[in-house]
Amino acid sequence: MSFDLSLPIAIGNDHAGVEYKMAVKHWLQQKGFVVNDYGAMTTDSVDYPDFAHPTAASVENGVCAFGILFCGSANGVAITANKHQGIRAGLCWDNEVAKLIRLHNDANVICIPARFVALPYALQMIETFMSTAFEGGRHANRVGKIACQ
Length: 149
Description:
ribose-5-phosphate isomerase activity; RpiB_LacA_LacB_sf; alpha/beta; 41% helix; globular; 5 strands; five-stranded parallel sheet; 149 residues; EC 5.3.1.6; Ribose 5-phosphate Isomerase B, Chain: A
């Protein structure tokens, strides 16, 4: 399944991801997408869960098509987003990983480490994430076992 790109795209970040968030938001808006910004606006130190939770909730509740999260390592935002039952957040540092989290895991949030991935590569990963559909098949059974119910 592909994303419903008629819905807004959720984006969130902590202080380490402000520059990336602003650049990605502008890039997406230039492409004609609506972006719901749940992120920090300054580089003053903040707590990443305060921004990851509303980003994830907007995807989980169907307000947004998918989410993009940035923090220094992307681990904190990925851990936080994955606390939401309807979220499958994947940490990406490579374009092939961005493709595989969609193909095999039906990820609906991409988490990018702003301190370890160059911005042009982050844009490439987001483009890949957005344009890759879930493969289904044998992966659907596995994805169906992820949620704790």
